[in-house]
Amino acid sequence: xxxxxxxxASVKDAEGIKNVYxxxxxxxxxxxxxxxSAMGKTTNALELVIKNYFDKSPELSSAVQExxxxxxxxxxxxxxxxxxxxFAAVNSxxxxxxxxxxxNKSPNYNFVYDQIVSFGELISTTILSHFMTFMGxxxxxxxxxxxxxxxxxxxxxxxxxxxxxxxxxxxxxxxILNITQGFLGSDxxxxxxxxxxxxxxxxxxxxxxxxxAESVTIWKDVPGVMNAxxxxxxxxxxxxxxxxxxxxxxxxxxxxxxxxxxxxxxxKKEIPLYVKSFINPLLKGTSVAKGVDLEPHLSCFxxxxxxxxxxxxxxxxxxxxxxxxxxxxxxxxxxxxxxxxIQNSAISFSVCVEDKFNNFNELxxxxxxxxxxxxxxxxxLYTIRHxxxxxxxxxxxxxxxxxxxxxxxxxxxxxxxx
Length: 418
Ligand code: ADP
Ligand code: ASP
Ligand code: MG
What we know:
ATP binds at residue 231. 38% of the residues lie in helices and 24% in strands. The protein is of the alpha/beta class and 418 residues long.
């Protein structure tokens, strides 16, 4: 079986959905499992619904309406006949969402988040699968929550591989086109969980692993994995072939074209990953597989914006040692700050972190009792794999360099715009 993943950008409007059909016509859909994300920026739009819900804001209903309007427009563009079953199916999903908003009693933000945000994927796959049927492709819509089982760590759930493997081996056999949701799973009480933002690539890898799939293809709005994000670097060039190792490094440092969790399950079973353009599906794109990198010396640039640089020093000039460091890390873990860079000296300790959950103020209050805390918000972290002088110059030019760290293959620079 081949596993294909279509992300938000590929299904952002009716044209996008039609394009998925065209891609399938060109590359074949025999024995294929499609993993699909929410359409366009729907997950962000649903995050706004969640915010309004918790704020008890009068804007809640208009936030829901926005999501509805967006999907209804796509459905109307795709299906002229209002008698098509897709209209009832999508309406029923929205009724479920509204029922949840009206009746939920749980105050647990992360739990509520997952119950709401999951409608993005449930609705997108409903529309896509009706469209494929409409175009004459026989499909099977699968609720991914019956397959991927996780713990109850809402918003960042951990996969229960044993149960997931059992479900997938038992229930996915058919040769017809299977369509399911990326990003979602369910816990032991069958409540919806999510695997972390941008987690649909990972879903594709989970299925591929459990199915011993022939390959995974993630269809993107770029020609493949490039040596830099083309949004920020002109002249980015395509990497034709990279090893799992290189891909893991790039994804780990933040090359967002592949979700970092995707590679490990694939590497374990040596299942090749193709990153291809959904605009030019017949082009080769990037192949990630075991073996040697074809372009080992091309410098690769990774940009992470909106970072927070925190420097801690001891108040009494004592050293920052193992016990302090482990305590600091336990706190970062507790407050869900993702550490992207660490630098340590005798009496000070600097980290560049991402505060996705806006917990820094709370954490700072605790840290400040023990350390002198300095921080700089809104800094950018550049990582260069296979750096050289020219590459370093490119990222440092016209910026204030706040911190720099160099290892054999990798240079990391924290900068602030002048
Ligand atoms: P999806 O639609 O599957 O969610 P993403 O938007 O997450 O796709 O990933 C594609 C985007 O990743 C591209 O539009 C590009 O801007 C960005 N990107 C970041 N780093 C790279 C890189 N090294 N090569 C290609 N694209 C990259
Ligand atoms: N829709 C989810 C997100 O935007 C998952 C994904 O697209 O990968 O984070
Ligand atoms: Mg994405």
